[in-house]
Amino acid sequence: MASPQGSRAPLEFGGPLGAAALMLLLPATMFHLLLVARSGPARLLGPPPYLPGLQVLWSPRMLLLWLTWLGLQAALYLLPARKVAEGQELKDKSRLLYPINGNPIYDFFLGRELNPRVWSFDFKYFCELRPGLIGWVLINLAMLMQEAELRGSPSLAMWLVNGFQLLYVGDALWHEEAVLTTMDITHDGFGFMLAFGDLAWVPFTYSLQAQFLLHHPQPLGLPVASVICLINAVGYYIFRGANSQKNTFRKNPSDPRVADLETIPTATGRQLLVSGWWGMVRHPNYLGDLIMALAWSLPCGVSHLLPYFYLLYFTALLVHREARDEQQCLQKYGLAWHEYCRRVPYRILPYIY
Predict the structure, then answer these.
(1) Alpha-carbon gap, residue 299 to 285, rounded angstroms
(2) Taken in order 183, 255, 334, 269, is the CA torsion positive or negative?
(3) Beta carbons within 10 angstroms of residue 258's beta carbon
(4) What is the domain count for the chain?
(5) 76 inside domain
(6) What is the pTM of this model?
(7) Which structural domain range is residue 132 located in?
(8) Whole-angstrom distance, CA of residue 289 vs CA of residue 294
(9) Is 160 a domain residue?
(10) Does some domain include residue 12?
(11) Of residues 5, 27, 42, the one with CA closest to residue 308
(12) Residue 118 forms beta bridges with which residues?
């Protein structure tokens, strides 16, 4: 039976109290990480370093640069010479996304507008990839250039971190169309969570390894560097292979590259892949992502926990996201999803989880 007009999906992230706590905790955590990376001890779990004065924290010039950066990315987004891709089909009763009995704090955090647009400018799609991801690469590059200025040349560890993360961002931009099928685009509204995450959390915390290496240089020999490169290559191979297989199947199940894969039919008319990468674990792309996250941290050595914050945070994020995705797939596919879980019992890590 269809949900009544005033119904609301189960609250996520701890409801209004959890949303309010996260809106305070996330900016504070990001600020703490940036200060710790510059401090001498660089202790992730230690007390906060000395807080700089307001004249250091606030700069009208930096605000102008940030607004200019957003404006430049928006102008590039609107260029007429661009590819236009179709997104996922929306539900017929889209008004169910805007109940009048919502909590303002929770709604502000998650966002109630799924695809906020002004004419052809899609705010969520724009923020999802462009300003934050490209800004992340530019911050990394700034750390590399600053290290070259201070020490004569960038360290091998700095080169590895920049190279690995440039590959990751370049892959995301090259396969930009694939973001249209992600949970962020198809399910989550555009609120504080995605806006802060895309514009602040991603560029400033994902570049933490490069910031750490600038202030805490680490020796790295060629043999160890080669092993780290191999780890990153394995992670990228799994990540790209799984995502490409899924996207190819969604576009054209008859494509020769995926036509022989075993599937499970569903009541919605779609089919679930149960072989290939998606027969190994339910989220092989998450597995590749986590292996790459480990490779990004290893050039920073093992004497500090701080460079491994991204790996720890990203593990928690993907486990939580996987649980949300499981619930959505169960509601959408029903018995077919139960059969898929029986055939593919492991979620992310084979034989473990």
Answers:
(1) 23
(2) positive
(3) 21
(4) 1
(5) no
(6) 0.78
(7) 18-44+98-343
(8) 9
(9) yes
(10) no
(11) 42
(12) 121
